[in-house]
Amino acid sequence: MQEIDGMMWLFTERTSLRRWFPNKVAFMTCLFSNQITNSYNEYKKDKKKFKVGGLLQQYGIGELPAHGRTRLMWDLDVNRMYVPLNVGKHWISMCVNFVTRSIEVFDCEGLRHPGAVEPFAVLVPRIVKAIQSSKSRQCQVKQYTVSYVSMPFLLNKSSSDCGEYGLKHIECHLLGLDFSMVNDNNIREARQKIAYDLWEAAIDPVLIERMAKFTPPKTISSALVELE
């Protein structure tokens, strides 16, 4: 999980610094996925009383994730965002498109995960609605459509490379590359490239300077729990 979050931060920095051409894009963390799932459970308990606030709202205005804070608002400053998601012991990734109001799911094994993806399809439009002021254009709360990207091959025969596939599928989708570029024949090299990218980022003077200016988020909306 730490490696995945590290790469999502690195993707954010690459686009923010214009080292990558695509813009108006956001990258979420594994923690974000967990918070969406937990918030969806609260939403189902009482849909009428459920309100978007606290951490979810902070994500929507770009204050979170705190590492790589962009302060870009979903659907106004950001057209799409990429999300890693753990389903059981398996990693997948997604592209949430605010323009088409849709979610594309990338699963190297070609499986369907309606129960795991539904919280995003339901809550993301509600977050967008909550963060837009009365002066903004009207935004209807309608569940996003979900589709699954076809995988070119039977992938992940090792059953241990799904995390790497999830990250590389995000990279391919963002940069307009064909998913067939990543397969079981070169996934080991892809894993090594991820490790090298993280090592290279750790000694990058520009990234080191940006990390030195990190400020933790101000809002904590959940209760603190003491661990024995």
Automatic annotation (TrEMBL):
Keywords: Hydrolase, Protease
Protein name: Ubiquitin-like protease family profile domain-containing protein
Family: Belongs to the peptidase C48 family.
InterPro entries assigned to the protein according to its UniProt record, in alphabetical order: Papain-like_cys_pep_sf, Peptidase_C48_C
Keyword set includes Iron-sulfur: no
GO term, biological process aspect, one: proteolysis
Gene Ontology molecular function: any one: cysteine-type peptidase activity
Pfam families: Peptidase_C48
Organism of provenance: Brassica oleracea var. oleracea
Domain Ubiquitin-like protease family profile: 1-173
Keyword Metal-binding belongs to the record: no
